[in-house]
Amino acid sequence: MKRIRLSQIPLVLMLVLAPLTARGAVARPGYGGTAGCASACVTEYALPPASAGPFGITRGPDGAIWFSHGDKVGRITIAGTVTEYTVPTANSGLGWLHVGPDRAIWFAERDSNKIGRITTRGTFTEYPIPTAGSLCDGPPLSSVPQGIATGADRALWFTEECGNKIGRITTDGAITEYPVPTQDSHPLGIADGPDGALWFVEKKAATIGRITTAGVITEYPLTPGALPQRIARGPDDALWFSELGANKIGRITTAGVITEYAVPGAGGPVGITAGPDRALWFVEFKGNAIGRMNVAGQVTNEYPIPTPNSGALQIAVGSPRSLWFTEGLGKNNKLGRVALTGR
Q: Cα–Cα distance between 6 and 1 in angstroms, integer?
């Protein structure tokens, strides 16, 4: 397996970003709040210029927030100090990020067809994916890797949207690929399940998939046109997923029982994560807001994002009292932070 190791000098050191906007959120009844902000405050941070807005986001093992930003992996502290590291491969088109069992940050290079790894000190390693041909409208020589999650076997598992496969990579860089049974399914988000399997969404096929660490795949169909996007393990040990096309949040048990819950208004849920408060938090791409849903399927709060048409996509827990999200549509080039102020 070819490896590329380069220790990069940070392009931006100790760049402190002042919050652009801090506004109170609009809460639905039933969730406590404090004066000034109704249960949560949304703050935005403008990032240094890049070829593309931020996409992936995760909390690193060092307690900072790590994000993908054009051809860079960035790090921002709670104080707003940003450091950026340029990926060795140019025009790599970075996407998802995920902290691996080795305490490094792993990421998808969607355009250059690689899985990348960066340590908290900024040392990169890149691993080419065996499947090179694209089966969809992505880059012609890329399988377009997307979501990444850690399996019960302590390997990293990832989706290949245009390769129509689920990939597995060990922390040493050995890659195995498993074809998805449904052709042209466009696998996207992936998450570890409480049953020791990996669960993933098939965007174009409107299906939820499950793959064991032995590579056995089971599929569970959704309503046609649901356009599932992301999936996360919930506090109730079910898997929760977003449906951009149906404007719903879905829940599937490990037995395959599916329930769907409508999102109010324009909605358009994309990113989703289990929050620090035992609720599900999600990004409303069309509604330009951050939503909160309890495990009973009730949307208790929606928090408007100050920047109009922000293009918010991904969301991750930042601390026991905060969540962070990316804004990357058009000329938007920001990170957002939701600070929980209520009970």
A: 16
pLDDT band at 332 (very low <50, low <70, confident <90, very high): confident
Contacts of the segment 291-299: beta carbons below 8 A, 24+ positions apart? 291/263, 291/267, 292/31, 293/249, 293/261, 295/234, 295/235, 295/236, 297/249, 297/251, 297/259, 297/261, 298/30, 298/261, 299/28, 299/261, 299/263, 299/264
What is the count of structural domains for the chain?
Answer: 1
Range name among 7-16, 66-75, 82-91, 146-155 with the lowest pLDDT average: 7-16
Q: Report whether 173 contacts 148 (CB < 8 A).
A: no
DSSP secondary structure code for residue 31 in this structure:
S
Structure tokens at 308: 């109009």
Predicted model pTM: 0.91
Residue 340's closest CA among 312, 305, 301, 310? 301
Spatial neighbors of 296 by CB under 8 A, at least 6 apart, are: none
Cα 100 to Cα 78, 126, 171: the distances in Å are 22, 14, 8
Residue 174 predicted with pLDDT over 60? yes
Cβ 264 vs Cβ 302: under 8 Å: yes
CATH of the domain at 96: 2.130.10.10
Q: HSE on the CB side for 261, CA within 13 Å?
A: 19
Find the domain containing 233 and state its range.
4-340
